[in-house]
Amino acid sequence: MKFLKISKQKIGIAGKILLIVVVLLSIVFIATSSFSDVTFSNVTGTIKAFFLNLKRGPGYPYEFSADGPEKIDSIGYYIAVVEDSTVVFLNSTAKEVFRYDTTYTNPDVRISNGRALIYNRGTSSFMVAGQSDMIYDNSETSGVITESIITAAIGKKGNLGFATWSDDGVSKFTAVNKKLGVDFYYVFGNDRIMYIALSDNGKYAACAVFGVKNATYYSKVHVFDFEQTEPIATFEYPAETLIRLDFVDNETLSVVTDLKRRLVSVEDKSESGVVDYSTHSLSSVDFDAGSHKSVLCFSKYGSTENEVYAFDKNGEEIFHSNDFENVKDVKCNSKFFAVLTDEYVYSYNYKGELKSKIELSVNIDSIEIVSNDIYFFSGSNVYKMKSNKDGILQTE
């Protein structure tokens, strides 16, 4: 009798794959049975994305349409690139793991917890995508939102927030739950909503509005409890324009205006962590939704010198340097932050230690970071390098 011989190498590879599958299926079971905010489709979508990420693509550089991308962000293992007519997710080898055609003319995207909310500003169109497939497209159903979208947000639990502008000039905030039902809406009148933030626990929403009164402009931040229809707190900033708004924890906001960055407590209405750059010009700011770490850059008026600050998950300052010149972009994730200048990209860990210095061989417009990779965007091209070693950006 002959026995089938299987090499130890094949058993080893098969065993490793089987172990990964068992572990991931266990995660699905635990997550769906233990956490009410994690749906089966979301977890299995993440697992599907994991396996798709193992498939290799042609490698970078990758070329987009001639006009280049409208919006770039990171989603899970991938970079999300939004063009006028297409949404594409690329993995670390430039494989298109997700592609969806749209008719959008002014697209934008907000991302949280492996979901992307893609919307067409000036219309009522929006869609929600996972890391590997489309979850919802309101062009295929009766619309949840019927007015023109100004801006929008997606929360960690899958809930949504929309700022809309009616034909008669009224600004409105609409809170939408993960089942696409409207929880409540609030009309702001003539104040225009500029930014929306949603807390991780799904309990709070914050809306930043811009208005004019007695020939003086102002920004206000209104905070809502999803169980109430009126703001539970309002913060006013005369003669300031709000740039970015984020929850650093469920009851603390990071408020970035054109003059100051501050932490605001929703509970006791106090302010802390104020960085005053009123004599400077804010040039770039980024916030990582997963880790709540952030980085911002500003420059002196009429000068090429820049100051860069980085903040930990509690919003506390952990890095400050004024040794940069001609900063064009800053980005951060849970592992490191990166600074793009005319000639180099510098990456730092959150101890403030320099990880790498990458020399640029072409003009780079912006950067994005995913895991330990840095993506370089130049016109219609994107390049990629690891963040943990010095070198020269290779464009071939």
- CATH superfamily caption of the domain at 278-396: TolB, C-terminal domain
Distance between the termini: 57 Å
Which CATH first-tier class of the domain at 278-396 would you pick? Mainly Beta
Taking the sheet with the most strands, its summary is:
5 strands, mixed
Rg, alpha carbons: 22 Å
> Helix/strand-derived class?
mainly beta
Strand order of the largest sheet: 26-27-28-29-33
Low-confidence stretches: 1-11, 28-41
And the CATH topology of the domain at 278-396? Neuraminidase
Structural summary, described in words:
The chain has 396 residues and is mainly beta. It has a domain at 278-396: Neuraminidase (6 Propeller), CATH 2.120.10.30. The chain contains two helices and 33 strands. It has a five-stranded mixed β-sheet with strand order 26-27-28-29-33, with no helix packed on it. Strands 1-32-31-30 form a four-stranded antiparallel β-sheet, with no helix packed on it. The chain has a four-stranded antiparallel β-sheet with strand order 2-3-4-5. A hairpin with a 6-residue loop joins strand 22 and strand 23 (294-300). The longest helix is centred in the first third of the chain and has 27 residues, at 8-34. The chain is globular and about 55 Å long. The model is unreliable at 1-11 and 28-41 (pLDDT under 50).
